[in-house]
Amino acid sequence: MMTQVTKGIKVSVQTTFEGTFFKNYKMHYAFGYTITIENQTNDVVQLTSRHWDILDSLKETETIDGEGVIGKKPVIQPGKSHTYSSGCLLASPIGAMTGYYNMVNLASTEEFEVEVPTFKLAAPFVLN
């Protein structure tokens, strides 16, 4: 598990390899990830948007920006956490993801970025 703390917000990532399949006559590798965002501050915060750079060893880096996570903009109380699961497809069995969340402190209205630790995506059969 990868973990990183930015401005009192702890982000932990767990990854899984979901399998291979053909799409558009090409092999694809499916990966899942579960992320827990824990508020270790004394203020209520809200996740407003996300930024991802998806690195695939056989393709150019794909950048994704969007509102919230999986259709939600979670409000996280002090000492509480929000967990969600998502996934991505790669053209190769090896890659990585990195990014950040845009968040707002609801007490001060301060906006800030929370780094997501870079996490590797690797099919077990390529690791020796």
Could you characterize the architecture of this molecule?
- This is Co2+/Mg2+ efflux protein ApaG.
- Residues 3-128 form the ApaG domain.
- Pfam families: DUF525.
- InterPro entries: ApaG_domain, ApaG_sf.
- There is one protein chain.
- The chain is mainly β and 128 residues long.
- The chain has a single domain, classed as ApaG domain (Immunoglobulin-like, Sandwich), CATH 2.60.40.1470.
- The protein has strands spanning 2-6, 9-23, 26-39, 45-56, 62-67, 75-76, 81-90, 94-105, 111-122.
- The model has no long low-confidence stretch (mean pLDDT 95).
State the CATH superfamily name: ApaG domain
Please identify, by name, the CATH architecture.
Answer: Sandwich
Q: Estimate percent helicity.
A: under 10%
Tell me the Rg in angstroms: 16 Å
CATH class category = Mainly Beta
CA-CA gap between termini: 19 Å
**Which structural class should the secondary elements be placed in?**
mainly beta
Largest sheet: 5 strands, antiparallel
Number of domains: 1
List the helices and strands and how they pair.
Layout: E1 2-6, E2 9-23, E3 26-39, E4 45-56, E5 62-67, E6 75-76, E7 81-90, E8 94-105, E9 111-122
Antiparallel strand pairs: 1-2, 2-3, 3-7, 4-5, 4-6, 4-8, 8-9
